């Protein structure tokens, strides 16, 4: 008996598969398990919904989707900036004038550290970058101190109800060595941000003589910032929360708050503090 060739086996297998019952999609409400995860097909993909859609009017009137703004307990932002180093310009880092034979060529004072800190704050708040809010095409920002940009970013952060949890910044430059200036820069940055110095960290790296950074032709900075929802907000909750005879928790606007009888009160207003927990109100 002659052995079947691989082509004959493949053909036989193919014909045996197509003679089986056709694969049917499960109904819209049926769960579909993929690698242990259970999901459900949206109703918009079911055959019944497609038929109903075809039978409906050709004019499709859809209400605009309303984008809800979520108040998150934490927000993270990243900032980056780079400037060329040229002779004849001052080198300002973190609002401090650093002695060097070159400085940053920029529309403002070229403070690479403050610029990336501003971008980190704006990014955490979901706002446009520094170039859009303070465009270099606007002559009023020509030579402006970057502390102005920091103050505006802090104002926006404060209005949004956030404060700095911690900030970590990294300077990248080949020269000058700034180890003797780091504490002064960090202290001034903390003051500009209105933050405790313990939550502001500053590091400095060389670029091992690689590319423009390593050849002392540019300077760069990275910043990562954590913003936290402010605590101790005064909320006029009225009758939404029962009288507190002991420490209790409740949810308001998807945020969990905790308070007790020791909290100051005035009428229906009581000071509640945000509590980062997932325990429901009890």
TrEMBL record:
- What Enzyme Commission number(s) appear in the record? 4.6.1.12
Query: Which cofactors must be present for this protein to function?
Result: a divalent metal cation
The domain of life for this entry's organism is Eukaryota
Q: Kindly report, in one word, the top-level EC class recorded for this enzyme.
A: lyase
Q: In which pathway does it act?
A: Isoprenoid biosynthesis; isopentenyl diphosphate biosynthesis via DXP pathway; isopentenyl diphosphate from 1-deoxy-D-xylulose 5-phosphate: step 4/6
Q: Name a GO molecular-function annotation.
A: 2-C-methyl-D-erythritol 2,4-cyclodiphosphate synthase activity
Per its UniProt record, what InterPro entries does this chain match?
Answer: MECDP_synthase, MECDP_synthase_CS, MECDP_synthase_sf
Task: Report which reactions are catalysed by this protein.
Answer: 4-CDP-2-C-methyl-D-erythritol 2-phosphate = 2-C-methyl-D-erythritol 2,4-cyclic diphosphate + CMP
Q: Does the keyword Ribosomal protein apply?
A: no
Q: Where in the cell is it found?
A: Plastid, Chloroplast
Question: What are the BP-aspect GO terms?
Answer: terpenoid biosynthetic process
Q: Which UniProt keywords apply?
A: Chloroplast, Isoprene biosynthesis, Lyase, Metal-binding, Plastid, Transit peptide
Q: Which residues form the 2-C-methyl-D-erythritol 2,4-cyclodiphosphate synthase domain?
A: 74-227
GO cellular component assignments: chloroplast
UniProt entry tagged with the keyword Glycoprotein: no
- Complexes and interactors: Homotrimer.
What PANTHER family does the record tag this protein with?
2-C-METHYL-D-ERYTHRITOL 2,4-CYCLODIPHOSPHATE SYNTHASE, 2-C-METHYL-D-ERYTHRITOL 2,4-CYCLODIPHOSPHATE SYNTHASE, CHLOROPLASTIC
Concerning its family, UniProt says: Belongs to the IspF family.
- According to UniProt, the name of this protein is 2-C-methyl-D-erythritol 2,4-cyclodiphosphate synthase
Q: Which organism is it from?
A: Brassica carinata (Ethiopian mustard)
Starting at the broadest rank, the lineage of the source organism is:
Eukaryota, Viridiplantae, Streptophyta, Embryophyta, Tracheophyta
